[in-house]
Amino acid sequence: MTSEEIYIKIEPIIKNYLPEDVSKMEISRESDLTKELNINSAHLIDIVLDVEDVFDIEIKNEDLEKLRNLNDVINLIKQKTE
Amino acid sequence: MKSDNIIKLLPYGAEFLFVDKLTMISTEMVEGYYTFKKDEYFYQSHFKENPVTPGVILIECMAQIGLVCLGIYLLNSEEVSVKTSVAFSSSQVDFLIPVFPGEKVNVVSEKVYFRFNKLKCKVKMFNEKGELVANGELSGMVKKYE
Fold first, then answer.
1. Is the ipTM of this complex over 0.90?
2. Mutate which: B91, B118, B144, vs A, most A CBs within 10 A
3. Could you give the strand order of the β-sheet that contains B104-115, starting from the edge strand earlier in sequence?
4. What is the pTM of this model?
5. How many domains does chain A fold into?
């Protein structure tokens, strides 16, 4: 899967957990999930669990610690689906 | 880990502790009960001259038994840690029957998942007649306190 294909699949997942006061326009590959998109730690886990389901992969504790923005998520998915 | 030890580890003061005893606990589920004392402080104001247990307090009771006790058990299944930090993250609960002063409620909670320190459970509350009082899903973060 290309980064673009992965991005198309994860964008709706992110939108689902975006707080009401954050515009969907602010979602980009570089935006920090917690600091800029204001996603709380509990919803970050929901995102990870949805990503696991959509891509049929398993994400570990140490993987989670490295996820800051969508580029990190995309790289992790690429690595796990190779 | 014994149920009594779990209750000792709960981080609540006497006025906000809504767990009397756990009757069953495993890595998948927990059951426990609490009796609302007739002189709980909130009955004076909720409502004036018509005391009914507030829904938020029922949720708190469901969360203390269903999420926090189970979370402490799950964290301590590998090693014993004394301090646990908890944070309630979401709740979706339907209330079906009011709970009056002096009533005993049973809480049954089934784990949906516990991953990356987030615990999500399906939690039910029953009254002494066995009627379903409240029903819903609760989630929270449960971590070892460093």
1. no
2. B118
3. B21-25, B29-35, B104-115, B118-126, B132-144, B84-95
4. 0.91
5. 1
